[in-house]
Specification:
The structure holds two protein chains of two kinds. Chain A is α/β, with parallel strands linked by helices. Chain A has ten helices and ten strands. Classes of the chains: A alpha/beta, B mainly alpha.
C-alpha cells in the first residue's frame, strides 16, 4: 500500500459517472490503477461492470467525472482519443475479429495503418505473439475457421500487437464452451505474470482469486468493496459482497 | 407464315438500313445506363455515409436532413417526371446534350436507391466490428473504410447488381426527352413501317437478353461470394 501511494497511477478515475437517460449505470466511481496491477471486477448482472470498462477507453462516453490515462485527461473533448486507445487494448466477450481478413491481417492492420510499422516488422511481431499463444500455424486462416477459444486468443494477440500499456477484458470467456475457457485463461495468466496491467471483468471467481492482485466488487453502479483476492473471497466485509459470494461460489 | 416474318424483318431492319436505329439506340441505352450507374453509386455512397454517420454518432445533422429530403423526393416521384423536370426545368434554358441530361436524371434517381442499399449493408455489420476497430485506435472514418465498408459492400453486392438491371430497364423512358434510346428506336421504326409487332418484339428481346445475361453474372457472383464465406 505504501508503495502505491508513491507511484503515479497509470489510470486515475475520478468521480466517473455514466447516465443512460434516467438510469445511473455508474455512480461517481473513483479508483487508481497502477502499472502492473491486475484488477478484477466482479458483481451482479447490471451492476455497471461493462459500462465501467467501456468508459475507460471511451467506447462509452461518460456523463461526469474524469479519467486520467498516463497523466492525460482523456475525457477532455479536445484530447485525441484515437491516439490513447492504441495504448489501451480491449478484448470483447464476442471476440469481434474482422471476418474479412486473415488472422495475420487482423493482427497487423493496426500496427501498419496506425503506427507506421512496415509489413515485415508488423508480421514478425505478430508471428512472435502467435507462437506465444500456440497459434502460429493459423496465421493464414480466416476467423470463421477457428474455434471460439482460438478466436479469443487471437483477439488478445490483436490487442497486444499494438503494444498497449493496459489491457481491458470484458468477460473474455463468457461466450466460450467450457472446454475452451482454460486455453484463454492460460494466455491471460501468462500476461499477468509478464506484469501487463490488466482490468478484467469476469464471472470466473476461481481465476480472479488466483491471478488478481486487487478485486473490486461493484453493485448498483458503485464500487462497494475492494480488497486483495484472499481477503476479498475469504473475509468479505460488506453484506452485499457476502450475499453475492454465497450465490456465485 | 415464315415468308411473312422474313418480309417483315426485311422491311423493318434491312430496308433503308433501319437496323442502324436499333444499334444506335442500343449504344445510347448502354451509355446512359453505364454512366448513370456511376453517378448513382457515387451519390448513393455519399448519402449512405452521411446517414450512417448520423445514425451512429449523431453528427452531420443538417447534411442528414438534406439526404432525407433527397431520398423522400426521389423515391416519392416517378422517374419520368424527374427526367422531364431535369430536361425542361433545370436545364430548360441551356443547350445541353440529352445523353448528359439522361445520365444526370437517372443517376440522381438511382443514387437514392443505391444509398439505401449501401446503408442497409452498413447496418448489417455487427456493431462489435465497429467497437473493435475504434478500440484499436482507428478513427471513425478509418474504421468505416478498413473494417465496415468491405463487409457491408460484400453483403449488398447482389442487391447493387440488381439495381443496375432495374436502371437498364428504366432508361427506356428516355424517349420522353426525345433521346433515341433502344426503346425509341423501335418506336421510330414502327412509325415508319406501320408494323408494330416486329420492331417492338425485337426491342423487348434485346432488353430481355441483356437482363438475362446480367442476371447470370449476378448469380455467378452470388455463388462466388457464398463459397468464400469469409
Ligand atoms: N447502451 C445502453 N443504453 C441504456 N442502458 C444501458 C446501456 N448499456 C448498459 N445499460 C444499463 O446500464 C446498467 C449497467 O450495465 P452493464 O452492462 O454495465 O452491466 P454489467 O455489470 O456489465 O452486467 P453483465 O454482468 O450482465 O454484463 C444496466 O442497468 C444496463 O441495463
Ligand atoms: Mg457486462
Amino acid at each position: 500500500m505504501s508503495i502505491d501511494m508513491e507511484r503515479k497511477p497509470l489510470i486515475e478515475v475520478v468521480d466517473l459517472t455514466k447516465k443512460f437517460h434516467k438510469l445511473t449505470a455508474l455512480d461517481s466511481i473513483s479508483i487508481n490503477i497502477y502499472e502492473g496491477d491486475v484488477v478484477f471486477v466482479v458483481g451482479p448482472s447490471g451492476s455497471g461492470k461493462s459500462t465501467f470498462l467501456r468508459c475507460l477507453n471511451r467506447l462509452e462516453e461518460s456523463t461526469g467525472g474524469n479519467i486520467l490515462f498516463e497523466g492525460i485527461n482523456i475525457t477532455d473533448e479536445k484530447c485525441d482519443i484515437d491516439k490513447h486507445r492504441q495504448k489501451m487494448g480491449m478484448v470483447f466477450q464476442q471476440f469481434n475479429l474482422f471476418p474479412h481478413m486473415t488472422i495475420m491481417k487482423n493482427l497487423t492492420i493496426g500496427p501498419i495503418k496506425l503506427q507506421n510499422k512496415s509489413k515485415e516488422e508488423a508480421e514478425a511481431e505478430a508471428m512472435r505473439l502467435l507462437e506465444r499463444v500456440g497459434l502460429a500455424d493459423r496465421a493464414q486462416a480466416y476467423p470463421s475457421q477457428l474455434s471460439g477459444g482460438q478466436k479469443q486468443r487471437i483477439a488478445i494477440v490483436r490487442a497486444l500487437c499494438m503494444k498497449p500499456d493496459v489491457m481491458l477484458f470484458d468477460e473474455p470467456t463468457s461466450a466460450l464452451d467450457p472446454e475452451m475457457v482454460g486455453e484463454v485463461l492460460a494466455v491471460m495468466r501468462d500476461l499477468a505474470e509478464d506484469k501487463m496491467t490488466m482490468v478484467v471483468v469476469t464471472h470466473e471467481m476461481g481465476f480472479a482469486k488466483e491471478v488478481a492482485n486487487r478485486v473490486i466488487f461493484m453493485a448498483d453502479g458503485k464500487i462497494v468493496e475492494e480488497n486483495e483476492p484472499k481477503a476479498f473471497f475469504d473475509h468479505p466485509q460488506t453484506e452485499r459482497l457476502q450475499s453475492f459470494l454465497s450465490k456465485v461460489l | 407464315m415464315f415468308g411473312k416474318l422474313t418480309d417483315s424483318f426485311l422491311l423493318n431492319f434491312v430496308k433503308e438500313e433501319r437496323w442502324k436505329y436499333i444499334t444506335d439506340g442500343l449504344i445510347i441505352t448502354l451509355e446512359v445506363t453505364f454512366f448513370a450507374v456511376i453517378v448513382g453509386i457515387f451519390l448513393g455512397f455519399l448519402v449512405a455515409m452521411v446517414r450512417s454517420t448520423y445514425d451512429k454518432t449523431g453528427k452531420l445533422k443538417v447534411l442528414n436532413a438534406l439526404c432525407n429530403l433527397y431520398l423522400t423526393v426521389i423515391r416519392g416521384t416517378p422517374v419520368v417526371v424527374q427526367l422531364l423536370i431535369t430536361y425542361f426545368v433545370i436545364f430548360g434554358s441551356v443547350n445541353i446534350d440529352k445523353v448528359l441530361v439522361a445520365v444526370i436524371a437517372f443517376g440522381i434517381n438511382s443514387g437514392a436507391y443505391v444509398a439505401e442499399i449501401i446503408r442497409s449493408g452498413i447496418m448489417s455489420v455487427d456493431n462489435g466490428q465497429f467497437e473493435a476497430g475504434r478500440s484499436l485506435g482507428f478513427s471513425y472514418f478509418k474504421t468505416m473504410l478498413y473494417i465496415i465498408l468491405p463487409q457491408a459492400l460484400k453483403n449488398v453486392l447482389p442487391a447493387l447488381a440488381n439495381e443496375f438491371i432495374v436502371l437498364l430497364k428504366e432508361t427506356s423512358v428516355a424517349g420522353y426527352i426525345a433521346l433515341q434510346d433502344l426503346t425509341k428506336a423501335g418506336d421510330i421504326i414502327r412509325s415508319r413501317t406501320y408494323d408494330a409487332f416486329m420492331p417492338l418484339i425485337v426491342v423487348a428481346l434485346i432488353y430481355l437478353l441483356m437482363v438475362m445475361l446480367f442476371n447470370y453474372f449476378v448469380k455467378q457472383l452470388e455463388r462466388r461470394l457464398r463459397n468464400s464465406e469469409h
